Amino acid sequence: MNPACLFLPFSFRVSQKNIIFEPRSKILTFGFSQIYLENLSLIRIFAPMKQVRPKKNLGQHFLTDLNIAKRIADTVDEPYADLPVLEVGPGMGVMTQYLVEKPRPLKVVEIDRESVAYLQEHFPRLYNNIIGGDFLRMDLHDVFDGQPFVLTGNYPYDISSQIFFKMLDNKDLIPCCTGMIQHEVALRMASQPGNKQYGILSVLIQAWYHVEYLFTVEPGVFNPPPKVQSAVIRMTRNEVTDLGCDEQLFRRIVKMVFGQRRKMLRVSLKQMLPAESSFFEKHASLLTRRPEQLSIPEFVDLTNKVAEAL
Prior knowledge:
Strand content: 15-25%
Helix content: 25-40%
Structural class: alpha/beta
């Protein structure tokens, strides 16, 4: 289709919802429109490409607020501004448009074929770095040839925990992870012992990462709006290189005891050890506590005690 040409004494640019008139304008490509200025009076407007329809089965809620998109994109700048970035679930590229301007390698992974086609159309400079596939099934060592990278994205609510468990499995590759998740999940991740939000994600992630709750995002800036608030977080690898216990047993114990979080440890650990084991008498005082009362070092110590009794 040939573009329509308008001869105007002024230029304008397209924001997300408005046409903004101004004295001068540079080339701008965003989402559904592309405008460029050949001179001060000639503006050529191209026919818009159809927007991607949010798909409920993929948990898609497209962010529509550009200011928030930029704030999230800028979370990757600290403390690893020189590392490549992998964006998960870019959708129509509302964050991608800011990430691609940063002086560092960028790749995006998107499972939705319609979104992949949209990104290829609107981000031609990123064409060869758009990965059509499932992040959860990827070998992350292949993304940047084994080089560490920063992970970011507007993560689908229904798989955000799975994404972070994959991050933990690749913690030596991912020194920093940022992005937007469900508000409740963010609270759990950043929670401390003694808090009702403290749980499996709190312990497993904080064992290896410092967690920062950065800011809250309201439902009205999404299409379609989710039923809950969202939050932006940043996780940065801590100084721990060895937990000091069997890591697989540590995970197993944390998941087991928080599966019965209202019960004392002595009750939930009977799933792992026989009731007649001397372990329960030997550590009777510790085992009267509930999982939300234990710090990460105490979970490490509990893991070592269980390992001795197995």
